[in-house]
Amino acid sequence: MKKWFVGIVSAFITMLFCGSAFAAGTIRIGGLFAVTGPAAFIGDPAKKTLEMLVKETNRKGGINGMKVETVIYDTGGDPTKAVQLATKLIKEDKVQVIIGPSTTGESMAVIPLVERAKIPMISNAAGGKIVDPVKHWVFKTAASDHIAVEKLLNYVRSKNQKRIAILTVSDGFGTSGREQLKAYAAKQGFTIVADEVFAPKDTDMTAQLTKIRAIKPDAIIAWALNPGMAIITKNVKQLNIKVPLYMSHGTSTNKYLELAGEAAEGVIHPAGKLAIYDSLPKSDPQAKLLKDYHLNYQKQYGEEATTFGGFGYDAYRLIVAAVEKGNTTPEQIRNGIEQAKKIPSVSGIFTMSPKDHNGLDLSSLVMVKITKGKWIMLTK
User: Fold this and answer.
1) Which of 72, 160, 204, 368 is most buried, judging by how many CB atoms fall within 10 Å of its CB?
2) How does strand 121-123 pair with strand 26-33?
3) Going by C-beta distance under 8 Å and a sequence separation of 6 or more, which residues neighbour residue 351?
């Protein structure tokens, strides 16, 4: 009897403290967010969103009675730092799943680590190569750039604008977008008459835009994030370029409107539905969720909810959906995320599969035009 009791106690202690086991009744989520640095506009709202949602979950009794804990680190948008902190999350903090990183470059750097450690990761970045080809343990919530590119170029084609100039940033987001723009343009009969690139820290793109103006394209497509997008917008206005200016799906932030000012008038780009949630019919499965998220975030933090914060919402929503079905180990959570079907969230309605670890399609984005400082939906 005594030996039996000692054995039970030993097994219990092993379960609590063994490096491969997790405390019973707790779901521990790691967060890798660019809270500071150039990508803070992506990482900070995602971090705040996760904290808000976890607080609400625990206030309501957790997930199936299990408390949710978070261990969150600021990567500063640095891929090397992201790898170091991901290692810490896995080896020291014993998280069951990781949300983030915020950028494509960071995500690509962390992928080999989580694949070896067999810990599921849900990136908040847009680069399609994060999940294409599919990695067993890696997912992402931002619509892949190939979806945004297709949505945008479908609209451009509908306007019979076939000669296009592209201007992209030379970071992970811009490089991936440039690849997709060139690939899709070739398939759909567009002619790329100018292919200009700028560095992430550049503060003036008039040289590239002057070359583009001389070629007289039907349209200009810029692919970057802020502050680059705002700089391009102002430069286009300064150079009195009259052709339509299209931008990436990373443009739908109040920060862009603030930085670009009046020059943003008339800019067109694909966007998540959060930007125009108050224009959605009540029958839209995302309508109430988007409204509640926006109002709750605004009440909690005194600022507007953003698409980028929504990426954190999506990741948490997918984790909760998996855990609600009894999945608690890293492998079980991974499998639960991959089996997600028709999960409405901020970025769209997610349906994952072994062949698709993004789970979104063209319906996740709408085309919008900036009109008097607001986004107006052009097409569904």
Assistant:
1) 368
2) unpaired
3) 340, 341, 342, 343, 359
- DSSP-assigned letters across all residues of 284-300: STTHHHHHHHHHHHHHH
> What is the average pLDDT score of the chain?
92
For the beta carbon of residue 215, count every other beta carbon within 10 angstroms.
10
Distance CA 57, CA 41 (A): 25
Q: Which two tokens stand for residue 115?
A: 């694949």
For residue 178, give the 3-state DSSP assignment. helix
Rounding to the nearest 10 degrees, give the CA dihedral for residues 168, 171, 176, 182: 30
User: How does pLDDT run across 47-93, given as a tens digit for each residue?
Assistant: 999 999 999 999 999 999 999 999 999 999 999 999 999 999 999 99
CB 220 within 8 A of CB 241: yes
Q: Who contacts 189 (Cβ-Cβ below 8 Å, separation ≥6)?
A: 162
Residue 30: which of 345, 374, 312 has the closest Cα? 312
What was the pLDDT predicted at 16? 41
Measured CA to CA, the distance from residue 351 to residue 123 in angstroms comes to 16
Pairwise CA distance, residues 335 & 136, whole Å: 10
pLDDT of residue 14: 38
List, in order of start, the domains of the chain with CATH numbers.
Answer: 2-144+288-363 (3.40.50.2300), 146-277+365-379 (3.40.50.2300)
Q: Cα-flanking dihedrals φ and ψ of residue 248, to 5°?
A: -70, 170
User: To which residue do tokens 């097994």 refer?
Assistant: 11
- The helix (run of H) or strand (run of E) holding residue 272 is strand 268-272
- Higher-confidence residue of 11 and 329: namely 329
Interatomic CA distance for residues 103 and 202, integer angstroms: 19
Q: What is the CA radius of gyration of the chain?
A: 22
Q: Which amino acid is at 365?
A: L
- Taking alpha carbons only, the member of 54, 100, 148, 139 closest to residue 363 is 148
User: What is the distance between the alpha carbons of residues 312 and 217, in angstroms, rounded to a whole number?
Assistant: 38
